[in-house]
Every structure is written in structure tokens, then in C-alpha cells.
Design a protein that fits this description.
Number of domains: 2
Radius of gyration: 19 Å
Helix content: 10-25%
Number of strands: 17
Largest sheet: 6 strands, antiparallel
CATH superfamily of the largest domain: Probable inorganic polyphosphate/atp-NAD kinase, domain 2
Number of helices: 5
Shape: elongated
CATH architecture of the largest domain: Sandwich
CATH topology of the largest domain: Tumour Suppressor Smad4
CATH class of the largest domain: Mainly Beta
Strand content: 35-45%
Structural class: alpha+beta
């Protein structure tokens, strides 16, 4: 097996990268069989965006503050951990946004796409699902659409539902909803087409973010799940990601 190691700025992560490189060697990302990010979920997310075109599996090693999608390095041989690992396919969201000046922006998100107010005024957002209006006006700080992989990130902080990793479901979650105040969001099939329209955008301007890429002064957003840029992420078979997701739903 040939590995490409990369690490966050965490000193422990840097030290682990050095040790693993001494044990297994360092290959270029193009020549490697596996890409090994060493750090937290943020580094894994960055790696997916940077290297998705290479069609290499990712095996993250946890040295981050959360590391929900990362693996704990054990005393086992890394080769054995990867050989026995469970595969999961991460399909990104493809976001197409239109600005108030009719500029068109595209970006992909493995975690979530979020539409947020960018002034002191609350956003007013119309929501369509599969071309049908489901909410004429959501008054809120914002709204987000999360993949199953991203459901334990910003979505969870916004009180959205945690989704099983291979559930083929998307979580639509309001952020600080004012009206309708009792709406808690919706669970959608990943084949759904989601449209947001920013109402009164001349005075209630909004920005949209796809993972870590932001565009400002947005009037409309279209989101679909995409087979483009999908990635294979590996999880240690002895520490089930399904158990992590289940346990997270009972943490208070």
C-alpha cells in the first residue's frame, strides 16, 4: 500500500505524520493508493475538496477537537486497519446561486449549504421543493441543507436531525426561525431539488456558503445532490461510525 499523509497544525498531528512517514514512506498524492489526513473533520473536508478528482479513498486519523468522521489510530498495522475498513460514499451537494446583479456562482458542499442574513435584518426566504412552493415566507437568520455526513456539524448546532451516514436523506433546517417559529425543518430524499428565493433582497441581503466557500448578495439558490466529485471515505471496522451516530443522538 502506498500512502499520502497530510496533517493539521496540531503538534500531535504533525508528530504522528512524521512517525507514519518514517514507517510507511511518503508518496505523492497522485501516486498514493490512499490519502491519510491527520487532524480533525475540517482537514478531512478540505482534503475531499482538494483531491476529489483523483478518485482515491480517504482514511482520516483523529487529532482534532471533534473528529467525528475520523478514526482513532490504534496499535494495529495501518495496512490492516485500511484493509478491513468499511467504505462510505460521500456525495456532495451542488449549489448554483444567483446574485442580485445576476451573477451565477457554483460550488460543491460535502457538509452543508447555508443561506444566511448578512445585515441586522432577518432574512425572508421562500422555499421550493421539486418546483413546488412548500413555504411562502420563512423569517429567520438563515436556512441550511445538510448531507448525512454533515448532519453532525452545523446542522446539529442548529438543532437539525442527525442522519445515518448512508441514509440517502438530506436535512433541511432553519437557523433561528422567527416565523413560523415552530417549524423545525424537514427530511428530504437526496434526489430532491431545493430552491431558496431571498425576498426583499434589496434591503434584506443574504450570503450563501457551500462548506467553506461564501458568496454574498444572493437572490436565489438551487441545490441538488450530485454524483460529480463523490468520494470514498473509510472507517475503522472495529469502531463503528453507525454507533457514533447513534450515541450522538443521546448525548445531552
Amino acid at each position: 500500500m502506498k500512502f499520502h499523509f497530510l496533517s493539521s497544525n496540531n503538534p500531535e498531528a504533525k508528530n504522528t505524520e512524521k512517525k507514519l512517514t518514517e514507517l510507511f514512506g511518503q508518496n505523492s498524492v497522485e501516486d498514493a493508493d490512499y490519502i491519510i489526513p491527520i487532524g480533525g473533520d475540517g482537514l478531512l473536508l478540505k482534503s475531499l475538496h482538494n483531491f476529489n478528482k483523483l478518485n482515491k479513498p480517504f482514511f482520516g486519523i483523529n487529532f482534532g477537537s471533534i473528529g467525528f468522521l475520523m478514526n482513532n489510530l490504534s496499535n494495529e498495522n495501518l495496512n490492516d486497519m485500511i484493509t478491513n475498513a468499511k467504505k462510505s460514499t460521500f456525495k456532495p451537494l451542488k449549489m448554483t446561486a444567483q446574485s442580485v446583479n445576476n451573477e451565477i456562482f457554483e460550488a460543491y458542499a460535502y457538509n452543508e449549504v447555508s443561506l444566511m442574513r448578512q445585515t441586522h435584518l432577518a432574512s425572508k426566504i421562500k422555499i421550493k421543493i421539486n418546483e413546488k412552493v412548500k413555504m411562502e415566507e420563512l423569517i429567520c437568520d438563515g436556512v441550511l441543507l445538510s448531507t448525512s455526513a454533515g448532519s453532525t456539524a452545523y446542522n446539529l448546532s442548529a438543532h437539525g436531525s442527525i442522519l445515518p451516514l448512508d441514509s440517502n436523506i438530506l436535512a433541511l433546517t432553519p437557523i433561528s426561525a422567527f416565523r413560523p417559529r415552530r417549524w423545525r425543518g424537514a427530511l428530504l430524499s437526496e434526489i430532491s431539488k431545493i430552491d431558496f428565493e431571498v425576498l426583499n433582497n434589496d434591503e434584506r441581503s443574504s450570503s450563501v456558503t457551500a462548506d467553506n466557500v461564501e458568496f454574498r448578495d444572493i437572490s436565489r439558490v438551487n441545490i441538488v445532490s450530485s454524483d460529480e466529485n463523490k468520494c470514498t471515505v473509510l472507517f475503522d471496522s472495529k469502531h463503528s461510525i453507525e454507533d457514533k451516530i447513534l450515541n450522538e443522538q443521546f448525548n445531552f
